[in-house]
Amino acid sequence: RSRSLAISASRKLIESTLLILLLLSIAQAGGGRYLMQRKLWMDEVHSWLLIQEPSTQRSLQALADGVDYNPPTYLILARQLRFLPGGITEFSLRWLSLSLMMLAIAGIFILLRRRFPFLVCLASVLMLASSVHLIHQASEIRFYPLWCAACVWLCVALDVHTIKERWFVVLSNCAAVLLAAVMATTHYFGILT
Q: Cα–chain-centroid distance for residue 125?
């Protein structure tokens, strides 16, 4: 039973990885380079200034004072890019957003794959990924991709009714609590969802 569960999980991981590579290839072919290099718009400038502030405390205080009207989780996550080679750049922040949206799409694929054949899941995810709104949100220096990823993976964590191993259910419940907290502290809509 454990071996078949591990094989199934690794197969789904391979399928998800191939899906992400396919989506990235399609995005690049469809002009995705423009989205990763476009100029900042007003809300992105707000995020940029808060993320670039050298003092985390000042950045959080500015957020509390109304520079932007969102909870701080995305800001704190994005500030961690300073520890990577190259530091915080517009391009690295856009890649962070794209990575988070790809993580959300992979989660949707996993949810669908638990119930439907591979081709149905692939067609569904490709239609979703071709949405103009999703494409633009995937490259914005804003909190939407983090919120989407947290929301989708919360659903993945809660969808454990077919799993019988107690340790996995406990792990899923802990992940669900953490993801719910991320949702509620990423965007105020997270509190409502």
A: 15
CA distance 116 to 125: 12
List the chain pLDDT tens, one digit each, 193 residues. 666 766 776 777 777 777 777 777 766 666 666 666 778 888 888 899 899 998 989 998 998 888 888 888 999 999 999 999 988 999 899 989 989 998 999 899 989 988 899 889 888 988 888 787 888 888 889 999 999 999 999 999 999 876 777 888 889 999 999 999 999 899 876 666 5
Query: What is d(CA 120, CA 170) in angstroms, rounded to the nearest whole number?
Result: 30
Q: What is the pTM of this model?
A: 0.82
- Cα–Cα distances (Å) from 180 to 26, 33, 133, 190, in that order, read 32, 33, 24, 8
> Encoding tokens for residue 28?
């690049």
- Phi and psi at 51, nearest 5°, equal -75, -35
Structure-token pair, residue 42: 């007003």
Instruction: Please write down the HEC assignment for all residues of the chain.
Output: CHHHHHHHHHHHHHHHHHHHHHHHHHHHHCCHHHHHHCCCCHHHHHHHHHHHCCCHHHHHHHHHCCCCCCCCHHHHHHHHHHHCCCCCCHHHHHHHHHHHHHHHHHHHHHHHHCCCCHHHHHHHHHHHHCCHHHHHHCCCCCCHHHHHHHHHHHHHHHCCCCCCCHHHHHHHHHHHHHHHHHHHCCCHHHHHC
